[in-house]
Design brief:
single chain; 180 residues; alpha/beta; Rossmann fold; 6-stranded parallel β-sheet; globular
Length: 180
């Protein structure tokens, strides 16, 4: 994975949805670390919200860390159905999409499968995704591996984006990693 070919997609980490997730605090923290590292490394970030009137806004600190990144509302489970998302991805000219968010077995999985079908390479940050039940999360990660998505961790993503300790951003990203 290379930062100049990556996009980070934050999926539905929302106020009324997140608290019901298994390990919800770590999911939000991992997503926030990825958003901040992406900002330091010039990796574009997109975010979705599933029916925000009912499920609330993206949680802080993730929302704050997003800065000017677009937040796209959706009703479809797959983010690929959010108005404008596929056009934005195409305009970026990047083929690797790192996914963090909820729920793993619904919106994250359907998004990753649709991205695969559209010729993108999804990377799922396992510590940055969850479901209400651990079995749903694990089964979805297994299915995504079988389908050709890469299951990784947020820390692995950040170090792959860096590539070398000689990178100018190494110390700043290392500080983010050590927050875990």
């Amino acid at each position: 994975m290379r930062r100049d070919d990556s996009v980070l997609l934050v999926v539905d980490i929302q106020e009324r949805l997140l608290p019901a997730m298994d390990g919800h605090e770590e999911v939000a923290a991992a997503a926030d670390r990825l958003v901040r590292a992406a900002g330091l490394l010039g990796v574009p970030v997109l975010c979705t919200e599933q029916y925000p009137r009912g499920l609330g806004a993206t949680v802080d600190p993730v929302r704050t860390s997003l800065g000017p990144a677009p937040i796209l509302e959706k009703m479809t489970f797959s983010c690929c159905g959010a108005e404008g998302l596929m056009g934005r991805l195409a305009s970026l000219g990047r083929r690797q999409v790192v996914l963090a968010g909820i729920e793993t077995h619904v919106c994250v999985m359907q998004t990753a499968l649709d991205l695969l079908a559209a010729g993108y390479r999804p990377f799922v940050a396992a510590d940055g995704v969850s479901s209400r039940f651990a079995a749903d999360r694990q089964t979805a990660l297994d299915r995504l591996r079988q389908a050709g998505a890469v299951v990784t961790t947020s820390e692995s993503v950040m170090f792959e984006w860096l590539e070398t300790a000689a990178a100018a951003e190494f110390k700043a990203v290392s500080r983010i990693v050590r927050e875990r």
